[in-house]
């Protein structure tokens, strides 16, 4: 079960609930991973759009591994399902699909304006109390992280992010993007769910993928720029 993730409809009781076929715990449909059987093949329904009876599983490697050992068959009430046999099936089939969606949501957030980018825009949005979360690159400098986390604590905002600055810059279309801010809305809600799912499957708060090593001189220059941006947000 994913704790503390905001989902539309939760407060008024409209959120549909489902039960994990593995551990039998109950959670919202949006936060569980959905699987359907097509023919005799088990398919991960990342976008939750495939027709047919779905089976839900917690975003947990333990639950997924248990499901592959029999819970999927019991949930589908069939014994002829082709279950995954590769030791890497979680990463190959599930993590990779979730990461694509995660990146799509960030890109869509930038296009829609729900994700605020650029130091001046983030600073103004923070001052106007328009932000509900910060998005930061995993390879931000220690000084940047300390200042941003202190600012986030004062404002009661979470600090999220699983991508390095190169990936962030590619998705947002802005060079050396380290800090962005989410405004409230559907894309933010979906982002929070996807981040929680990816972290759950990583088994820790580690970033998805490897952080790229940068040259020392370039890193020092980037770090100074980052800390200047955070200083603006704090002012």
Walk me through the structure:
Helix 3 (119-127) packs parallel to helix 7 and helix 4 (142-155) runs parallel beside helix 7. The chain has helices at residues 61-76, 89-112, 119-127, 142-155, 165-172, 186-202, 216-234, and strands at residues 17-19, 26-28, 33-38, 41-44, 55-57, 115-117, 131-136, 159-160, 179-183. The protein is elongated, with a radius of gyration of 20 Å. It has 235 residues and is an alpha+beta fold.
Largest sheet: 4 strands, mixed
- Cα(first) to Cα(last) distance is 38 Å
**Strand segment count:** 9
**Segments where pLDDT lies below 50 for 5+ residues?**
1-11, 204-221
Quick one: CATH class of the largest domain?
Alpha Beta
What's the CATH topology label of the largest domain? 60s Ribosomal Protein L30, Chain: A
Neighbour order of strands in the largest sheet? 6-9-7-8
CATH homology superfamily of the largest domain: Ribosomal protein L30/S12
The share of residues in extended strands comes to 5-15%
> How many domains make up the 3D coordinates?
2
Q: Secondary-structure element sequence?
A: EEEEEHHEHEHEHEHH
Specify the helix fraction band.
40-55%
What would you call the structural class?
alpha+beta
> Looking at the structure, what is the overall shape?
elongated
